[in-house]
Amino acid sequence: MVMSKILTVEEENKLLKPIDDYVSGIQAKIDALRVDGTDKVISLQSLIESIKRDKTLSADERNKEIASLQTELKKAEEVENANKEQIAKYISEAEAYIDAHFDKEYYTPVVLSCEEAKKQAKADYQTRLSHLAAEHKNNLSGLSDHQEIKDENYVYKNRLFDAKLEYEKHIQDIKDRKMEAFSHKYHLIDLLRMSKFTFMQNQTIKWENYKYSFNVKKFLLQNGLYLAIILIFIGLSIITPIIKGSHLLTYNNVLNILQQASPKMYLALGVAGLILLTGTDLSIGRMIGMGMTVATIIMHQGVNTGQVFGHAFDFTGLPVGVRVILALVVCIILCTFFTSIAGFFTAKFKMHPFISTMANMLVIFGLATYATKGVSFGAIESNIPDMIIPKLNGFPTIILWAVAAIAVVWFIWNKTPFGKNLYAVGGNPEAASASGISVFAVTLGAFILAGILYGFGAWLECARMVGSGSAAYGQGWEMDAIAACVVGGISFTGGIGKISGVVVGVLIFTALTYSLTILGIDTNLQFVFEGIIILVAVTLDCLKYVQKK
User: Fold this and answer.
1) Mind listing the pLDDT tens digit for each residue in 83-121?
2) Which of 225-239, 246-260, 490-504 is predicted with the least confidence, judged by mean pLDDT?
3) Are residues 54 and 179 in the same domain?
4) Domain limits for position 131
5) Alpha carbon 43 to chain centroid, angstroms
6) Fewest Cβ atoms nearer than 10 Å: which of 358, 405, 483, 509?
7) Are residues 210 and 323 in the same domain?
8) What is the tally of structural domains in the chain?
9) Are residues 184 and 285 in the same domain?
10) H or E element, residue 382
11) What is the pLDDT of residues 198-223, one digit of tens each?
12) Residue 201 backbone dihedrals phi, psi, to 5 degrees
């Protein structure tokens, strides 16, 4: 049945009535079978849970009532199982009828009606604009006073705005009408299945909801930067073979990008928690330098030739495995110690993390440089990288370390009370405090978590680079980590962000740097690219915040 006219509400209801009547008849049969079965099971289970939570009952009273209800529950489950096959047949019959008749006899005519209504609304809107323009021109022709002309222009502008609002409202009403028609089908199925949709039904609902809520402006606002970066990489992939005679996105290049990104992933995941609290960390690079130095000293190949505060350390007497673990522990302790200091001042005295972490940055760099005279401590034991990050058939397992960090931090953010509190404090610390959340504990916890991740990152970087630790190592890495978070959607407004965004941000910046290096772009110009990306990312974030307000 194909129609091309605009249907009235009465006409739509007339088309829908036979379908509703047929399905309702089957639904009544299903409901009758569920009364003493499924419905009773659900009711009894709810009642049992309620009794379990009832503190007014004694243990004996509680057990007695539960035992009685479980007897009834068993009988209800038997009825449910006995009717299950028949109910399934009724559901299949109803869904077969819906599939055969709903779209053809109701939904398609409604969609066509909505399309016609849109055309009519647009035509009416254009007619009204023409009418307003003619009326405005006529009004202006009789005016000579500047103020009167100004007032007329103002009135005309308001009338245009009102006309646009009315048109947009009309279009939205048509859109809602179409969505209601679609939703009715799954409302019927929902009643039949008791909300237990099939996989395909769920996907169809999600896709339709996405189309309904899709907005081009909003989409570009949220994803415009990523689209632009994708286009940049496409351009680089085209240019690289022409200029360098080799392809950019080869298997080995991808692995190299992932290897370089892996230690940085720890840093970005650490600072992401601080940004979630509207903070930041300027000391990341110096933490890496400190951690690299310490790890290199402990895992050094032979006796250290460099000195710390005038003393040359010798860890060669310890087994290599012990030295590896010791290096990790010391890195974590040192990084956590300094982040805890910054976290304490931030949480206790409401000091902005910019200040507390800047102080950390200066203290760490000063101490590390003074203690080591700024020298590099050379290579670590040659077999250590194979112990920590071996290659399996050419695959660098350092990537698995990064995956593990992503999984752990995702779990902390999304599945623990601390993670929930982190979002709450970041979004509104006053409201979080009023609801019983310790803002001090959450803030300090975020800094401690960051310190642990920095320690791991420094240790992995030491293994990746086979040592070469120095106080100057890691300079500028804080910018890379913060930029990755910003590009990944961790908002500086607080309480907004996902782990997936951090991962994407790290990969984007690492891949961009690697690609530009392959092309032979000067390092200083690479900073320009990064700066532009950061500026655009923060601008888009600010626009989203402004729109919300």
Assistant:
1) 999 999 999 999 999 999 999 999 999 999 999 999 999
2) 225-239
3) yes
4) 9-214
5) 38
6) 358
7) no
8) 2
9) no
10) none
11) 999 999 999 999 999 988 888 887 77
12) -65, -45
